[in-house]
Specification:
Blueprint (H helix, E strand, L loop, with lengths): L1 H4 L6 H5 L2 H14 L3 H8 L2 H13 L5 H14 L19 H11 L6 H9 L4 E2 L6 E6 L1 H4 L6 H19 L6 E3 L10 E3 L1 H13 L5 E7 L9 H8 L5 E3 L2 H10 L10 E3 L3 E3 L10 E6 L4 E7 L10 E3 L1 E3 L2 E2 L2
Parallel strand pairs: 3-10, 7-11
Antiparallel strand pairs: 1-13, 2-5, 4-8, 5-12, 6-12, 7-9, 9-10
């Protein structure tokens, strides 16, 4: 009986780990045409969890009534900008983290994946996946890629150019990659945002023994229907979330080529600041990857004046937290 098992807020996780819950999730996903990853993201929404607790208190058994009650909650919550990957889309979430590390180690032969595999085995189980993250992603350390370059900003520009050069040979669509801003990958036009730079420096310190970092992230689906300017403003009050930039997003695309599919949500690189002209401000434009007819790197306004912003959304990362 759910009502007998459920006594406190903490007991919700015990219920969600029980075998009958799998059947309930399957019913919910079928009714709402959701993938398990989409449902998982919904379940991280505080409002949904609050409603879920009330449902568990009300009903005495796990049956169709529970599924229908949860479906009703999710349908209501989806009206409030709860944006998810479309069902049937090739990308259904991050690959197993070990597989991501293997892919990167094959591409970047100078990186040593051993310490990262040890981290995955010993440390990752103690970390809590932050709310809003799709899962764990493997990201190569820029410092490890360019150990002979001491200056961080120079490491960044070298990494951007190097990683962009890998897209044609590692995504399976070499003839379709177009970089419309190739001539402007320079310090006068491109730089890291301060918050992203600070967050990555913290991760570099925490995972200093690793040449391939493990970072929780989301690839844009949480921030559809919001402009880059609004997104950046929202990050001011969030201590553990930061925007991803070109190096991180390219790494994710290299390990998840299925994310590069026509019709999928395009990705804003909001962790980078870009200005097409040196006399313009840094806040007006953002670099972005689009996936219509291949993969393209271009720019658009941070306020999305001239395009429907539901087709574009920023990717973000999170600082890992120890499980309490």
């Amino acid at each position: 009986m759910i009502s007998e098992q459920y006594n406190t807020k903490g007991d919700i996780m015990n219920i969600l780990s029980q075998s009958w819950w799998i059947d309930v999730v399957e019913r919910i996903c079928n009714k709402l045409e959701l993938t398990p990853m989409q449902f998982g993201i919904i379940m991280q929404n505080p409002k949904v969890l609050e409603e879920l607790e009330a449902i568990f208190r009300k009903y005495s058994k796990a049956d169709e009534i529970v599924a229908e009650a949860i479906v009703a909650v999710i349908k209501e919550e989806k009206k409030v900008n709860l944006i998810l990957p479309p069902k049937g889309f090739p990308y259904t979430g991050p690959k197993p983290i070990e597989r991501q590390v293997e892919i990167l180690a094959k591409i970047f032969k100078r990186l040593n994946p051993g310490p990262t595999f040890e981290y995955i085995k010993e440390v990752l189980p103690t970390l809590q996946l932050p709310n809003g993250a799709e899962g764990w992603f493997a990201i190569p350390s820029i410092q490890a890629l360019f150990p002979k370059i001491a200056e961080l900003d120079r490491q960044y520009y070298c990494a951007v150019k190097f990683l962009l050069s890998l897209i044609p040979t590692n995504t399976g669509i070499p003839q379709d990659f177009q970089n419309y801003r190739r001539k402007e990958i320079t310090p006068n036009h491109l730089r890291r945002s301060d918050k992203t730079k600070d967050a990555l420096e913290r991760i570099a310190e925490i995972q200093k023994e690793l040449s391939i970092w493990i970072i929780p992230a989301q690839t844009g689906f949480l921030y559809q229907d919001i402009t880059v300017r609004e997104f950046r403003k929202s990050l001011i009050s969030k201590n553990n979330e930061f925007a991803l930039g070109l190096p991180e997003i390219i790494a994710i695309l290299l390990t998840h080529i299925e994310r590069i599919s026509e019709g999928c949500l395009n990705i804003d690189c909001a962790g980078d600041e870009f200005r097409p002209q040196e006399i313009w401000g840094w806040e007006l434009y953002v670099l972005a990857f689009s996936f219509l007819g291949g993969i393209k790197l271009g720019t658009h306004e941070t306020d999305n004046f001239n395009r429907d912003c539901k087709d574009w959304a920023p990717a973000s990362g999170f600082l890992p937290r120890v499980e309490l």
